[in-house]
Specification:
The complex is a heterodimer. Helices cover 71% and strands 0% of the residues of chain A. Chain A has 13 helices and no strands. Chain A has helices spanning 9-52, 75-80, 87-118, 124-133, 139-152, 160-163, 172-184, 187-195, 200-211, 213-229, 232-237, 246-255, 262-294. Chain A starts with 8 loop residues before the first helix and ends with a helix. Chain B is mostly helical. Chain B is built from 14 helices and two strands, in the order H-E-E-H-H-H-H-H-H-H-H-H-H-H-H-H. Classes of the chains: A mainly alpha, B mainly alpha.
Amino acid sequence: MDTALTADPREIARTLREAKAKRARRSALLKHIFLICASLIMIYPLLWMLASSFKPNNQIFGQLSLWPREFTWQNYPEGWNGMAVSFGTFFKNSLFVTVLSVIGNVISCSFTAYAFARLEFTGKRLWFALMMMTLMIPYHVVLIPQYITFLQLGWVNTYLPLIVPQFLAGDAFFIFLMVQFFRQLPRELDEAAMIDGCSPFKIYWAIIMPLSIPAIATAAIFSFIWTWDDFLGPLVYLNDVKDYTVPLALRMFNSQDSVTQYGQMFAMSILSLLPIFLFFLIFQRLIIRGIAMSGLK
Amino acid sequence: MTKFIRKNLAGYAFLTPWLIGFLLLAIGPILASLYLSFTKYNVINPPRWIGLDNYTYMFGRDARFRKALQVTFTFVAFAVPAKLIFALGVAMVLDKGIRAIGLYRALFYLPSILGGSIAVAILWRQLFNADGVINSLLELVGINGPYWLADPNYSLWTLVVLAVWQFGSPMLIFLAGLRAIPQELYEAAEIDAASKVKQFFAITVPLLAPVIFFNLVLQMIEAFKSFSGAFIISGGSGAPLDSLLFYTVYLFNEAFSFLRMGYASALAWVLLLIIALFTAIAFWSSKYWVHYESERG
């Protein structure tokens, strides 16, 4: 009997499987090569800025190499004190506005989301639709009347126009994110608590909020990043250099036409990105899930 | 009856911060800016009613308005599709179980989370400097790069690249969408020997259509609203030769550099209508290409 022709079917299946596995390994390798190259291109600009912040001024341009030929720390202390007002002040201002905004957003948006997700009241669907529509409104459309109002209140050149709106649940994204999360929590919790005589506020505070830490944290992180990065608001409302937030201070570096202190500019830019980068490192999981869940920008 | 009141009381109590914000910071300003758009107003003197003059000037004689529209539409038309194509392409490579997916995902997303910062806009300006990184790279392959930011033929493309570079969020949303497509469909297609291209158009695209639609609408609105990048890179004015005169940059300068608040309000209203129109078109067209799971029954 010719054994070659009547090969064991299991043998054939194994050969086929092995061929398939080999193909899969090769395609995985190709994918990795592609992904490594692509991600290097993606982060190269950021690495270049980091490297440039450690280079002396005359070695920044015309150089692609990331490793500084001449390493210097000087850009950091010099950039920090490079303007009439120290960057310490700008960071303090930014932190002040940002922390208060985060607190305001978390409180006011969770209130709103709790109403939409867990309470019944007349007109709920209409209000919810209107809330979602505010997502579409460009800030530029409300900016001018808001500016005029704040001007008349004497709030221009203070932080109030940047902070007070955050306590009025202005960001529909956060409300939407929390509504999505609150809705997933079992209704029985509220019902049981209600029978025990809990008020809606008690339910919000003692049941919904503690169970929604991931959603609250996600909203808080994004609120931090967006306020930290906010440029248009401070640009409109802050005129005094000592009140400037970090983005406005960086812009001063950028708009000096005679600017030659690129190293210092990059050093301060890196410092300004550091808090966001750290948040991303620590809370990556929350951030990524938050985006997948609600389509945050 | 008392129960009805109590129920509504709780709902509206929690809704109060948002309601105040909605009335004072959204609806109120929108209506106020509609009124202002029919006036001449420079903040110092009270607004003076001039009827439709702002609008007739805008559509009749304002060449910069037409330029701003052209710049913005060009930006939206190129940046949004390119961003979505990159996002979907990378998401598809990442989707089919690959090692270190978390790391790649983080690297691809990093530019997006840092990208809102003024620091990145400043970096971008220096990358496209005449002797910046981009031109150094082009020199390596023997191309003599243009003066990207000084040349009106090229300046807008640097902003398109900046936008596309930040494809991280739609990528994450696509990834979540791809996960939801049942794997059996692809296996069945393999057995029928359908090519990868065929599988993409027959399975991936139709099943992902709701997610594509969602990303499209979101990114389009974002692109119409984009401001900081163009403002920083053009030095605040839309230069060179108004080639970076994004609609929002033009509006900002009309309002806050020239104090033409009435005219800027008219511009703001037209922007609102443009965004609403394009969103409506997207929703209308979605009838023909987006089918939701639940509809098929």
